[in-house]
């Protein structure tokens, strides 16, 4: 292998390691933050056991790159936590996403719509994910519509994603009486809805342990 190719590979490996460290650091900071506390999530992350990098297929990457070209603001990309359906998502499904990318089978039906649901709040994502596992993804948000209500199956014309108050802000997920609760947009509940599976690309699966 020519020296130039070896140097390039080393740089790529260093960048990948740096990215994983950044993902892990952001996750721990979000989980340990005392800013948002839901019922059942008053804990600190004691140890990140592993951060498993995604290895999506070439096809999945190309579909993502083609999809974001159709977004109004393709540069509006964020690393977010995937919020699956609580009742049917397994670790095996997370592992499949790491290698194959997202599909319509990962869509969640909520009061806000049928779409992929993501959040910037690790604690909120923990409420929907298998115990000790959280999936991080690169999501092209594009032009974002902020909406309080309305059940949607597609993004409104002129927009690429929808920002909602999130499922944890609904009455069925409120903590028992006597526990502090905020229904505001800043309560750590908000979720982004993306209506196309190729508008998000998996980055890593974080395995962690915690103390209540």
Radius of gyration: 18 Å
**Which residues form runs of ≥5 with pLDDT under 50?**
1-12, 171-184
Give the overall silhouette: globular
Provide the CATH architecture. Answer: Alpha-Beta Complex
Task: Quote the CATH topology.
Answer: Phosphoenolpyruvate Carboxykinase, domain 3
The end-to-end span amounts to: 51 Å
**Count of DSSP E strands?**
9
CATH class: Alpha Beta
Fraction of residues in β-strands: 25-35%
Largest sheet: 9 strands, mixed
Report on the structure:
- With 212 residues, the protein is of the alpha+beta class.
- It has one domain: Phosphoenolpyruvate Carboxykinase, domain 3 (Alpha-Beta Complex).
- Helices cover 27% and strands 27% of the residues.
- The chain contains 4 helices and 9 strands; from the N terminus they run αβαβαββαβββββ.
- It has helices spanning 3-32, 58-68, 91-100, 122-128; strands at 44-53, 77-82, 108-110, 113-119, 133-140, 144-146, 161-164, 191-194, 200-211.
- Strands 1, 2, 3, 4, 5, 6, 7, 8 and 9 form a 9-stranded mixed beta sheet that branches.
- A hairpin with a 2-residue loop joins strand 3 and strand 4.
- The N and C termini lie far apart (51 Å).
């Amino acid at each position: 292998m020519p020296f130039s190719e070896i140097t390039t590979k080393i740089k790529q490996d260093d960048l990948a390691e740096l990215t994983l460290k950044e993902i892990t650091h952001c996750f721990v900071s979000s989980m340990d933050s005392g800013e948002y506390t839901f019922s059942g999530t008053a804990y600190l992350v004691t140890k990140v056991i592993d951060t498993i990098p995604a290895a999506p297929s070439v096809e999945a990457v190309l579909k993502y790159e083609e999809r974001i070209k159709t977004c109004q603001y393709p540069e509006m990309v964020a690393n977010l936590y995937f919020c699956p359906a609580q009742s049917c998502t397994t670790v095996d499904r997370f592992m499949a996403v790491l290698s194959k990318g997202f599909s319509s089978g990962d869509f969640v039906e909520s009061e806000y719509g049928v779409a992929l649901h993501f959040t910037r709040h690790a604690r909120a994502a923990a409420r929907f994910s298998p115990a000790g596992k959280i999936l991080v993804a690169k999501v092209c948000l594009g032009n974002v519509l902020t909406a309080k209500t309305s059940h949607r199956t597609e993004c409104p014309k002129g927009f690429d994603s929808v920002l909602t108050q999130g499922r944890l802000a609904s009455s069925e997920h409120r903590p028992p009486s006597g526990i502090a609760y905020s229904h505001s947009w800043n309560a750590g509940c908000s979720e982004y809805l993306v209506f196309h599976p190729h508008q998000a690309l998996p980055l890593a699966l974080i395995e962690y342990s915690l103390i209540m």
